[in-house]
Amino acid sequence: MMDLNDLAVFVRVIEAGSFTGAARLLGLPKATVSRRVAELERALGVRLLQRTTRSLSVTDAGRLYYEQSSQALRTIEIANQQLAEATVEPSGTLRVSAPMGMGQSPFIDAMSEFLVAHPKVKLELILSDDLLNLVEEGIDLAFRSGVLSDSTLVARKIGETHRILCASPAYLRRHGAPATLSDLRRHECVISGRSLAGVQWTLHGPRGRESVPVGGRVAVNEMFAVVAAAMAGHGIALVPHNMVGQAVQRRRLVHVLPKYATPAGGFYAVYPSSRHLSPAVKIFVDMVAKRFPVA
After folding, report:
1. 160, CA 20 to 30 Å: which among 4, 51, 116, 145?
2. In the chain, where do the E strands start and end?
């Protein structure tokens, strides 16, 4: 009967290009590696490798056998790895990046649930609207919205995101609520950006896509501050729905022109394709995804 350990040794010899290289990878004596390959050949009844004192070459049968068996071996390795992960409690440090607007519920609720459920895991959360290089920054997992252009990342869509128009009750008492999108021209608006000049908001509504120029006295390039300025009564703001849901429920903000919103965009969990996805990452993504259902 063929020994799968012999098969694993044969695959490593092919990948390393020599018995010496395979012995180094496997941590075995070179003689043991050679003997295992010979035993595999005897079990199969076919020559897989041609050996000389100076070179090693693969026979046609050996090449065909490698192509088929290496895939099967990888499948077994993955199954063993997944089984081991399923029985091991997540531990270590999980380094996560997310947009600034994620630093609140429901994302923080998911983070809290995760930390309570897995006390051996430490979590480092980096809130930034910059597209950080995950590999260079040592980030295990990032949450991003919109169009993903980095092909080196593996992405899982976990929700939808869009922006709505909100203002404080105090502002609306002073200035009234807009009845149409064009009414925004005469209102104070809190601008998300570095400048008040030449700002135009584009939203989808009953008549499809519409744009309106807006202005005001406050421009801020950080979304938390935009929401805070709107709550303080400085104008109408265009803000992420999942960021202000609780504020609207508690009447700290009022959703105005509810038939208008920006088009829904994807919300993704991403990680480097070259990095093994740890159990901690899988569990954390699942917990976040429960709170951001895909529409």
Report:
1. 116
2. 49-51, 56-58, 92-98, 121-127, 141-145, 153-161, 163-167, 188-192, 199-205, 208-220, 236-240, 254-256, 265-272
Joined tokens for residue 105: 């519920």
SS3 84: helix
pLDDT of residue 141: 93
Helices 60-86 and 4-16, packing angle to 10 deg: 110
Cis before 106? omega within 30:
yes
Place of tokens 């910059």: 130
Residues whose CB falls within 8 Å of the CB of residue 168, separated by 6 or more in sequence, listed in order: 230, 231, 232, 233, 252, 253, 254
Helix axes 107-117, 279-289, angle to 10 degrees: 140
Cα(201)–Cα(155) distance, rounded to whole angstroms?
29
CA distance 122 to 80: 26
In the numeric block, which tokens belong to residue 157?
């869509």
Cα(270)–Cα(144) distance, rounded to whole angstroms? Answer: 7
The contacts of residue 57 (CB under 8 Å, 6+ apart) are: 49, 50
Share of the chain above pLDDT 90, in %: 42
Phi, psi of 141 (to 5 degrees): -155, 140
- Which tops the pLDDT comparison, 2 or 164? 164
Q: Name residue 269's beta-bridge partners.
A: 143, 156
Beta pairing class for 265-272 and 141-145: antiparallel
Q: What's the whole-number mean pLDDT along residues 202-224?
A: 92
pTM to 2 decimal places = 0.56
**What tokens were used for 258?**
């509810």
In a 3-state reduction of DSSP, which class is residue 73? helix
